[in-house]
Amino acid sequence: MKSSWKKQRQATKKRQIKLLRWRNNFVRKYGFKNVAKLGIRASDAARKIADAFYKVLKQLTKMRITNETFV
After folding, report:
1. Does one domain contain both 52 and 40?
2. pLDDT by residue (tens digit) across 23-41?
3. pTM for this structure?
4. Are 41 and 66 contained in the same domain?
5. Rounded mean pLDDT, 40-54
6. Domain range for residue 8?
């Protein structure tokens, strides 16, 4: 008969293996070799979006200032 800590350990191992398989399959599904490359691409995309958003805010501020001077 197995003790409770052995059962818990085996259950945790199974859960970790399932999560690892799911993560690896998810990463491969979208054409990446590993999680690190996925993270790099995601951070690059987030940086590009933030830069574009900053440019838009800057332009809107400039437009608001010019509108206030003409009113």
Report:
1. yes
2. 889 888 888 888 888 889 8
3. 0.51
4. yes
5. 94
6. 1-31
